[in-house]
Write a structure and sequence with these properties.
Number of strands: 2
Distance between the termini: 50 Å
Order of helices and strands: HHHHHHHEEH
């Protein structure tokens, strides 16, 4: 079977709404259950995310004839699968902060601005299904963990999250350039954290167009775009921390 994707179609709206519906249904089913039962639900959702990502990685390796940037889980939403899994064990508030403040909004944006799906000649193959189900599960899992209180963030965790994400952001500029040379034969760009170029159809294209690419040694980068992207990222991290605080205060 083959199918293509249309932006703002009924199916696209389903992609946007369903994760929240699923999270709310799970919340109302398990809100009065024990912490252990609530945690098991989060772990199951997270394991499912990781399995979907693994299937996608194998598919991309086979499709490109070898290892390539699309098969390496350094992208924000790919990394989210592991962050959600680690957060579900409630061992680290910092990981919980990364999962909620970074990975959740990134997956939500990928569901809303799903323009890249329009470039798939078939969304019913493993790559297409992984994009759709993977991002939806990240949104549903993150929202569910927020509602039941699995994700806990304090000021220290928030500051640590900012430091870690900042380091990953800077490193992504170098890794993208390195991988784009290393895997040039696969015709697949590394674009972790979207620091190499903006995702087509997203507002990030406007930021990119405000600057221009510079070539320094073997590195290509757009400084204006990187600065604006970093500012936007910091704003989003802060907004979702404040949303967590509102939920936390309301729960108390």
């Amino acid at each position: 079977m083959k199918a293509t994707f249309d932006m703002w179609s009924q199916f696209h709206y389903f992609m946007i709404y369903f994760p929240f519906i699923l999270a709310l249904v799970l919340y109302y089913i398990y809100r009065k259950k024990s912490d252990k039962q609530q945690q098991i639900v989060a772990i199951v959702l997270s394991i499912l995310m990781v399995l979907i990502l693994l299937a996608r990685a194998i598919f991309m390796i086979d499709k490109k004839g070898g290892l390539n940037p699309e098969a390496i889980p350094f992208q924000v939403c790919h990394m989210a699968n592991f962050m959600m899994l680690f957060a579900s064990f409630k061992k680290s508030k910092t990981i919980g902060a990364i999962a909620w403040c970074l990975n959740f909004p990134a997956a939500l944006v990928s569901v809303i601005f799903a323009d890249s799906l329009t470039n798939y000649d078939n969304i019913l193959n493993i790559q297409g299904l992984a994009y759709i189900s993977g991002h939806m599960l990240i949104v549903a899992g993150g929202f569910y963990m927020l509602l039941v209180g699995i994700i806990e963030i304090d000021k220290k965790a928030f500051k640590n999250m900012f430091k870690i994400v900042g380091i990953m952001y800077v490193l992504s500029v170098f890794i993208n350039n390195w991988f784009n040379q290393l895997f040039a034969h696969t015709n697949t760009d590394a674009n972790y954290f979207y620091t190499f170029k903006p995702e087509d159809g997203t507002p990030l294209e406007m930021f990119f167009d405000l600057g221009k690419n510079y070539q320094v040694a073997s590195m290509t980068y757009n400084p204006i775009y990187l600065i604006l992207l970093a500012i936007l990222g910091a704003i989003i991290l802060t907004i979702f921390y404040l949303l967590y605080r509102l939920r936390h205060i309301k729960t108390k």
